[in-house]
Amino acid sequence: MKRIRESFDFNWMFYKGDLEIGYAIKAGCTGSFTALDKNKDGEWTQIAYSDKEAVIDIDEKRWTKVSIPHDFIVGGDFSRGEWDAQGFLPTGVGCYRKVFRVEEDLFGKKISLEFEGVSRNCTIWLNGHLVLNHFSGYTGFWLDMTDFLNYGGENVIFIKVDAREFEGWWYEGAGIYRHVWYTVTDRVHVGRWGTYVTTPQISETHADVRIEAQIENETAHEEASVLETVIYDENGGIVASGETSVVIAPQGKTVTVQNLRVPKPMLWDIDSPCLYIAKSTIKGHDTYETAFGIRKIEFTKEGFFLNGRHVLIKGTCNHQDFAGVGSALPDSINEYKIKKLLEMGSNAYRSSHHPATPALLDACDRLGMLVMDENRKLDSSERGLADIDSLILRDRNHPSIIMWCLDNEESILGTKVGKQIETTLRDRVHSLDSTRPTTVAMNHGWNENGYEECMDIMGYNYGQRGEQYIKDMAEYPDRMMICTESTSSTTTRGIYKDDTERGYCTSYETNLASWCCTHEKSWLDLIKHPRLTGIFVWTGFDYRGEPTPYSWPCVNSHFGIMDTCGLPKDAYYYYKSVWTDKPMVHFMPHWDLKRNGEKVNVRIFSNSETIELKLNGKSLGERAMVKNAHLDWEVEYEEGEIEAIGKNGGVQVCAFSRMTSGAPYKVELCCEREDISFDGRDTVVVRACVTDVRGNVVPFASNEIEFSASGGRIIGVGNGDPADHSSDKSRFRRAFNGYCVALVQATGETDSLTICAASKGLEDASICLKKK
To answer: Is there a catalytic annotation at residue 289?
Structure first.
């Protein structure tokens, strides 16, 4: 039969709060809202029926219809009594319920649900049977429903999610926040994450592809079949194929290895991320597809090499939340985040501090972003090993992933016990994937108890402290090293003077914590010492929680190169000047300072050779641009227009200007896409800005903007203000320093999506997106 894999994301009912469900001591007798009907009357049922009648009410007043991904705390009220690291949002318990039909002709097949992530401790009942409990919010899991289903009728699944305990010290969200998939296979099938594709030999003429497939037989008799694998290029053409006879014992598993040769391979690279598809067919039973890339990675003490070419890793660390949606990101928002990082010139992404959502890894594969994929914690217990198994088995076919991070900043780093656990994890990873190295993101203990022996590459978090990594390069000449985390510079978009009352940090990077350094310091250390391999800047985006160097009323971090909405801060343009080649120039601050006659430090970022600065048409001179650094230019403030002109060889190659703005006059809308898929999932980020009558953004504007959509729905709003306590689940948002955003999802009801923005006293705006 043909494998079925369908989205199970729609038509869920959600209840915010705890519904007490007792333990039933006989199978299928939990009853009530965990099944379609109450148990039948009768004395025998009273022994087993332990559901609480007082809370079985299921009506629209108490339950809300939702779609997955779903974060049930992101729209809550901020509370000063909650943990600042979690963004001052109360957590709690939530319940999900869905009724679905399974056709009678599927009897005899294997039917499962795949949950990509539920945050956090979840318990699942199916048709009154207690069937599963899963602890971690960062590892996916499968629910085999086969035995518990009502074939030819309706079924009910009930899930309780308890997010009152934390796995991390950042905003984690709560609920079924990653996709759910409904899968139907034959009883003879490829196993879960059942293929492993490697490319042991690569040349210009050919690539040897090794495909390892685990085949499972869940019948009571031996099965003989043929495994056929066909490799397709990205245009759908067949480039290699092969067949192998297989015999699987009853209730058994077997691993089959096939070696195929792809002629003139198209390599996966950051500039040309070519992908192949391996379609594995167990004839008469199952078909399973695996996306993979052909590429060679190598780490040496001289750095990282991709397909034989030395590549400096220009990375960022990132948590998974985003404005408007919390941790429940639509796939297109994950892709949006990767594209914003790539536009800045970044080429690597660290999934801090947990396994990334599959959609993000898929985007990295398609777009050419390298990935450091990370395990949640240092743990070699049965559950800890299960978690790292899940990480490696799920993700090892992604060509974007170049290394595994075993853990981050654990207290016992450098100790003998830490080393023992670390060694077990490293060996477990190597047993499942021999093609990538391991690292540990260490902020201490690098040179204690031989700790470097338990990883392949030594990771340095904030190794600039005391010049630690530079000293270690001299003392340990054979050590491979990488800056797993750096910088942590705290700035607020559009702010140029510290504001301790509201909790804003100047963009001049003078308000830094003790372990932090400037963006420039981190990058210059790598340029001077390429043996450091690369850097992962903390962080690409602001995130909820960890409001260092402040606390309340700040509810999100200041570490991002972009804010929570993906709106660039000034530091974004520093990286663009050192990480990209296209001529560019940017400067700060804005030119609405109202400080006539005062000296202003104009800070310029550019990759051009020289900069000419003009004020109201008058040249202030021309100066050499410092490579990999910035240029500070003291200017006597005068209202009007200030312009920076970048030149190479005396010829203008780029320019950037700012104008003193007038009063707010209108709202303008911008979207980086012109079309959208009307599938009920595709989501766009629509940026609103407040401008004056000439179209200049008003940098202090804080007008409240109301968003509306025809052919879609507003699923969240944001503005990047770390001290804004208004709900992300609204149609209203005030601008912060001129900007705010709405996340708009197409509903599939029409062929066009129109988004409107209105603000009292201002001219309205609208944009229209067409069907993709």
So the answer is: no
